[in-house]
Amino acid sequence: MAIQTAITAVEVRDNSPADRNYPLDNICLAIETVEQDFGYECLGDTLYNWILTNANVYPDETLEWECNKYYKANEFVVRSGRLYESLANDTRSDPLIETTEWRLWTKFTANACANEMWDYVVKALSPKVFARSLGYTTRKAGTGGLTLLAGGESNFGNQGVRSANKAEISDYKTDLLADEEAALRNFRRWVAKKTTTSADTCNVPLSTIPNCGILCGVNTGQKRRWGFKN
Prior knowledge:
Elements: H1 9-14, H2 24-54, E1 63-64, E2 76-79, E3 82-86, E4 102-104, H3 112-138, E5 139-142, E6 145-148, H4 166-196
Parallel strand pairs: 1-2
Antiparallel strand pairs: 2-3, 3-4, 5-6
C-alpha cells in the first residue's frame, strides 16, 4: 500500500531544474522518504497531517499549453509554470489572458493562506526530492550489479552532451540544496509574519510548527541540521 504524500512527481519536476523529459518514476522513488522526513521534522505532525488531509490531488500527465490546440472543459495545461483548468469547451485562448475560460488550479480549495504556504513549501521540498532522485537516474542496479549512465540520452539530441561525473553531480546537488536553504529561509520569514501579526488571519495551523514556528535547516550531507535556527 502506497504511503500518502502531499507533493507529486509533476510538482517536483515543475518546481525544480528538471526538464519535461526527466523520468517521473525516479522522482516517485524519492518522494515518500524525503517528504515524510521534511514534513514531520520541519512542519511538525499537526501541520503536515493537516496538509495531507486538505490538499487537492495534482492532475497527472499535464502538458504545456499549445496556442493552436483546442481544449475541452476540465482539461489541464501548464502555462508559464502554473497549472490551469479549462472552463469552456473548444477553447484555444491563452490562460494568461482569457481568465473567463481558464481557472488557476490551487492546492487548497478556498484557502488563500494555505495556497500561499504551499508555494513556499513546494519550492523548499522540490529541490530536495529532485536531488535525491538524481542518484536513481544516473545509477541503476540490475542483474549486472550497479551500473552508471555513460552516454547522453537521445532526448538531449546527443549534441555535445555527456554524462556528468561524480564530482559534477555532487556540485549540482550542492547548488540544489542551496536553493532549498534559501526557500526555507523565505518560508521562515513568512511563517513568522503570519504568526506574529494579530491582524492577519490564516486558517492553517502554522503555530504548531516545532520551536515556535521557526523552520528547520537542511541536511547538507556533511552534518545533519534538522535543528531550528534563530
